[in-house]
Specification:
Helix content: 25-40%
CATH architecture: 3-Layer(aba) Sandwich
Shape: globular
Strand order of the largest sheet: 3-2-1-4-5-6-7-8
Structural class: alpha/beta
GO molecular function: methyltransferase activity
InterPro entries: SAM-dependent_MTases_sf
Number of helices: 9
Keywords: Methyltransferase, Transferase
Protein name: Methylase
GO biological process, one term: methylation
Number of strands: 8
Strand content: 15-25%
Length: 273
């Protein structure tokens, strides 16, 4: 099937568009590990890089990284600003196109993946839930007959060069997990990641909110794991996360922790009210 635009009313507003090569590497690696099986089993494994910005680096990189685990994957870079789409078109290749659009996601069919990195940070918190619902409604549905959980929306925020990143993963049914990822060598304490919380959580990092309690407990576990720093930051992180599992529903294991990651169920961190 040809990867092409489907005429729809464009939904969204133009964002700053700042981007850098390799900025989303942590998110890409996580998606490949967590969602590669869904991409491989899909009849038409289409991924969308929504709001890729002023340069086309992130869709190009996403295609490369996803094809290492699912060789049939195709990627559509979607941007609301026409000039950015025109500038990206020379980078089109087999399996990669650039289309104008927004939260309506103007591709044929239902994508197996939508990635929206550093997009909603520039919106109001009150707008997030509606955007999530709209994007989740565009995902490929679950199929119990094949064991498929359906498509995945990955929405989050990172710093300018991708050292610190936090994202929410959502399926057709809604939010599933929150992942914290960092370059361990640059980390002073886990709560440093608070400044990169996605829009749904960043204003909730206050006493009485679950995400604040989680980061508080993570800092305490990190401090208690200080003796492991003699073996390197990775071993200290692994020990801290292992201790964290006693009170929080961590969904991954040491293989991901070694990457400077930890994933927690959304329900444990969701804003109150």
């Amino acid at each position: 099937m040809t990867l092409r635009a489907v005429p729809r009313a464009v939904v969204g507003t133009v964002t700053r568009g700042t981007t850098h090569p390799n900025r989303l590497r942590r998110m890409d690696r996580w998606i490949a590990a967590a969602h590669g099986a869904e991409l491989r089993r899909a009849e038409d494994p289409v991924a969308v890089d929504l709001g890729y910005g002023a340069a086309p680096w992130t869709p190009v990189e996403l295609l490369h990284r996803l094809r290492t685990v699912a060789p049939r994957t195709r990627v559509a870079g979607v941007e609301i600003e026409p000039a950015r789409v025109a500038a990206a078109r020379p980078y089109q290749r087999e399996g990669l196109v650039f289309l104008r659009g927004g939260f309506e996601v103007p591709v044929l069919g239902r994508p197996v993946l939508i990635r929206a990195a550093n997009v909603l940070r520039q919106y109001d918190e009150a707008e997030v839930a509606a955007v999530w619902r709209r994007l989740c409604a565009r995902l490929a549905p679950a199929d119990p007959a094949t064991g498929s959980r359906g498509g995945l929306l990955v929405e989050g925020t990172c710093d300018e060069i991708g050292r610190r990143h936090v994202w929410v993963a959502l399926g057709p049914e809604g939010p599933r997990t929150v992942t914290f990822a960092t370059r361990l060598g640059s980390l002073h304490r886990p709560s440093d990641l608070a400044e990169r919380l996605p829009k749904a959580l960043i204003h909730r990092n206050v006493p009485g909110e679950p995400v604040h309690a989680f980061l508080r407990d993570f800092d305490r576990a990190w401090a208690a794991a200080a003796p492991y720093a003699a073996y390197g930051a990775r071993q200290r992180w692994i020990r801290a996360v292992r201790d964290l599992t006693a009170g929080w529903p961590v969904t991954d294991g040491p293989a991901r922790w070694r990457q400077g990651e930890v994933t927690v169920r959304w329900a444990a961190l969701a804003p109150r009210g």
